[in-house]
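Researcher: Re-running this chain for the archive, since the previous output was lost when a drive failed. Same request as before.
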Amino acid sequence: MPGWRSIRGRVAVVITVPICLLLAVAGLAVQGRAEALDDARTTRAEVGLSLRVQSLVHQLQRERGLTNGLLGGEKRFRTPLTATRTRVDAALPGIRDDSAVKDVVLRHLADLAGIRTAADRGTADRAETLTFYTTAINALNAVDPVARTATGTDRQLSDGLAALRELAAAKESVALERGLLNGVFAEGTFHGREYLAFTEVRATRVAALARFRQVATQPQRTALSHAFETADAKRATAYENRAKDATDGSVLRVDAGTWWDAMTVLVDDLYAVQRSVGADVRGRADRLSHDAETGLAAYLAAGMLVAALLAGLAAFASRSLTRPLGALAEAAHDVARHRLPQAVARIQQSPPDQVEHLLATNTPGASGAPDTPDALDSPDARLRNGAAEITEVAASLRQVEHTALRLAAQQAGLRRTTTESLANLGRRNQNLVRRQLGLITRLERQELDPDALAELFELDHLATRMRRNAENLLVLAGHNQPRPTAAPAGALEVVQSAVAEVEQYRRVLIATVEPVRVRGHAVADVAHLLAELIENGLTFSPPTEPVEVHGWYDTEDDTYCFAVVDHGVGMSAADKERAHARFSDSGDQALLAAPARYLGHLVVGRLSHRLGDGTQVQLFDTPGGGLSALLALPGRLLTPTEDPTTTLPPARPAVSSLLNGFRAGVARAEARTTQGASS
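Model: Regenerated C-alpha cells:
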C-alpha cells in the first residue's frame, strides 16, 4: 500500500477509510424513525421528571399540613415537621435540571426559609402560610413537562398522562384539606374565610376525581376506590362531616393528631395510586421507545459492522506503530538509565591512556565492541519491521550515545587537567612559602632591633596566610596532606594557631575556651578550618567590631564545640541553606558549580569531611545581629586534658546565654538531620 512504510501514510489510511464508511452508513438513516425515537425518549425522560416533581409536591403537602397544625397550637407536630423539611430539602436538587421547573422553584420557594423561621417562632400568620405553600404546590402542578412532548398519536399514552394530571389535582385537594383542617382542629374553630376555602377544596377534589375516572383504566379506578374505602379514610370522612356541620363557627372538639394520621394515610394511598399510574405511563413510553429502536436496528447493525471494521483497522495500524516504538523506547531507556551512566562513570574513573579504548568498546557498532549487542543496534524484529521514521530515530539515538560518551571523555580530561593544575600550583606555592617561613624565622632569631623585629613578625604573619591559601588549593584539588603534628594540642592552642593565620588577628577576641586536647592527626585540619571561619567573620563584620571565639565541651553528646561569633551583616535563611549544602558536598561537581566567592565554604566542607563522621559545621544568627559558625568535633578526635583544673577568664554574661543558644542550635540541627534521613 502506498505510504505504508511511513507514519504519516498509516495515519492517513486509518483516518480515510473509517470516514468513507461512516458517510455511507449515515446516508442510510431515516429521518422519520430518528425523530420518532427521539420523541419517545423525550417522553420517557419527561415522565420521570413529572414523577420527581410529584415526589416534591407530596413532601411539600405534608410540610404544609404540619406547619398549619403547629401554628394552630399543636406542638407535637414539631418533630415530624423537622423530618419532613429534611425530605423536602433533599428532593429540591433533583428537579432543578429542567429550566421550567427551576424557574418555578426559584420564584415560589425562594422565601421558604423565611416562612419556616417565622413558623418556628410562632410569628407567622396561619392563613398566609397556608397560601404560600398552596401557591407553590399549584405552580409545580401547573408545570407539566409531559405536555411539552410531541408524542400525541398514542391514545393509551395520552389517557395515562391525563389520568396522572387529574390524580395530581385530586391529591392536592385532599392534602390541602388535610392541612387546612389540621390548623382548624388544632385551634378548635374556623376563622375568617377558612370554612369557604374548605368547601371549595372539597368541590375541587370531587371534580378532579370525576375526570380521573373518565380517562383511567379499570385497574387504576379500582386502586382509587380501595384508597377511599380504608378505615382511616372513613374516619377522615367522619371528621370532615363534623367540620362541614360547623358552619356557624361552633367549637370543634376533634383531636388534630388523629385527623392528621387518618388523612396522612389517605394522602399516602393516593400517592401510591399516583405512582402506579406514573409507572404505567412510563412503561408505555418505554415500549414506544423500544418500538422506535427496533425500527433502527438494521441501521444500528450496519453501524456496528462499520465500527468493528474501524476498530480492526485502527488496532492493526496502532500495533504496527506501537510495537517498534515500544522496542525503541525500551532500548532508549536502557541506554539512558544503565549503559550510558555506567560508561561515563568508567571513563571518568579510568586513566587517560585507557579512555580511547573505553570509547571504542562502548561505541555502538564499533569493531572492538563487546559480544553483547547494543540495545539500539540489536536485530529486534519489532525494530526491523518498524516504519522508516522509527529506524531513523534509532540511528539518531545511537549517534547521541556516541556523542555523549565523547563529551564525557572530554569533561573527564578537562576536570583531571584542572585538578592537577590546582594541585601543582598549590604545591609550588606551599614549598615557596615553607622556605620563606624558614628564612623569616632565621632572620627573627638574628634580629635585635625591636622595630625591625616587629616588621619581620608582620612578614611572618603574611607568609602564614599565604601558606593557608596554598593549602586551600590543595584541599580543593583533593591532594592536600595535613601539616604533621606529633602530639595532641590543647583547644586554646588550636584557636591561637588559627588566629595566627588570619589578617586582622588583632580584632579576634578569644573568650572562654574550656580545656580539652585535640588528637595530633586532627590538629592542623581543625586549626585550618577555624581559620577559614574566623576569616569569614572578620571580612563580613565592621572593622570596629571584634570576632569572638568560644569553646566548650558538651558532655551529653560527647562533642567539643568551637563557636566563631561576629556582629556583621549576617546571612539570609536561603543563603544559610545553600552554605550548609556546600559544607556537606565533597564532590568535584560542587567545585565546578560554586561561584569563586564561595570557595571558602568548599574548603570548610572538605576539611570537615576529612575529619570524619560526626564533625559538623552549622551557621546560626547571632543575637543582636551577625552570624555565628559552630564547629562540633566528635569525641574520637579528643583526648582527656592533662590539667582539668585549668581555667581561663570567665566569659561575659551575654556569652553564657549565647553558649546556651548554640547548644539548642546543635539539637535543632541534629533533629533536622535525623528528619531528613528518615524521609
